[in-house]
Design goal:
By secondary structure, the chain is an alpha/beta fold. It has 2 domains: about 130 residues, D-Maltodextrin-Binding Protein, domain 2 (3-Layer(aba) Sandwich), CATH 3.40.190; about 120 residues, 3-Layer(aba) Sandwich (D-Maltodextrin-Binding Protein, domain 2). The chain is about 35% helix and about 20% strand. It is built from 10 helices and 11 strands. Strands 1, 2, 3, 4, 6, 7, 8, 9 and 11 form a 9-stranded mixed beta sheet that branches. Helix 2 links the parallel strand 1 and strand 2. The longest helix has 14 residues. The N terminus is likely disordered.
Length: about 270
């Protein structure tokens, strides 16, 4: 699926549309995951069109940054591609913040390579060994005699956290891995490097890169929703307590049939039964 690469989208992805914090009852600030960014952009645009008196500002930066902003009172909604950590919950409590999660979509984390790479499938164990630096040449996994360039998200990313949990099982990423700050940056890096291996959210997959199957299973709406694809996870919105006012109205829209249709349009998996 081709992703939008217009000026507005990349301004959002770069985090250049910023806000100091909640400013009024009809203004909503959203900050966090770059994976959830396309969903947030599409739904907020539709919501604002239907509710012209509402102002919503959006920025990326990573799941960790969004959760930190929620704890600090600098955002109404933290978008995240991971669950909140116990330590973050404890820190929030010390500041009088009660993080409440709302699951809004399902995602698959997809390993990607350059379209010219002949490898089509990697096992969970092979991915783990590559990202630990134990497998370093494509010939070890059925490819050409070329060094593997492992490309990873940075540590503030929820996708990095999920990859570490689902693939590395807590092992450390090799220090030789190249770190990127967003899904889009990984797509760009892999599309230009025949040696590269990266991983991205399903909604960021486009024709400039090739998706690999994992354990023989391709990532799709069906395999992710059925949990057959082994690298699947939920996507979340976090608020301080149960959402109220315009924040609650926006979240209800994201969960509505119209909002979930936009989730699907952006390449992610709507919640089952919607």
């Amino acid at each position: 699926m081709e992703k939008k690469t217009g000026w507005f989208f990349w301004m959002l992805a770069a985090g250049l549309i910023l806000a100091a914090g909640p400013v009024s009852a009809d203004s909503v600030v959203i900050k966090g995951s770059t994976t959830v960014l396309p969903i947030a952009q599409a739904t907020l645009e539709a919501f604002m069109k239907a509710n012209p008196g509402t102002k919503i500002s959006l920025s990326g930066g990573g799941s960790g940054d969004g959760i930190k902003a929620l704890i600090d009172g600098a955002t109404d909604i933290a978008t995240s591609s991971r669950q909140i950590k116990p330590a973050e919950v404890e820190l929030a409590k010390t500041k009088g913040v009660n993080p409440v999660e709302t699951r809004v979509a399902i995602d698959a984390i997809v390993p990607i390579v350059h379209p010219g790479n002949p490898v089509n499938d990697l096992s969970l164990d092979q991915l783990s060994q590559i990202y630990q630096g134990k497998i370093t040449n494509w010939k070890e996994v059925g490819g050409r005699d070329l060094q593997i360039v492992a490309i990873s998200r940075d540590s503030s990313s929820g996708t990095f956290e999920a990859w570490g949990e689902l693939i590395l099982k807590g092992a450390k990423v090799t220090p030789r891995a190249q770190l990127q700050a967003s899904n889009g940056a990984i797509v760009q890096a892999v599309s230009k490097n025949r040696y590269a291996l990266g991983y991205i959210g399903l909604g960021y997959l486009d024709k400039s890169v090739k998706a690999l199957s994992v354990n023989g299973i391709r990532a799709s709406e069906k395999t992710a929703s059925m949990k057959a694809y082994p690298v699947s996870r939920a996507l979340y919105l976090f608020t301080n307590g149960e959402p109220k006012g315009e924040t609650a109205r926006y979240i209800r829209f994201v969960l509505s049939p119209a909002g979930q249709a936009l989730v699907k349009r952006e390449g992610f998996v709507p919640l089952s039964g919607r």
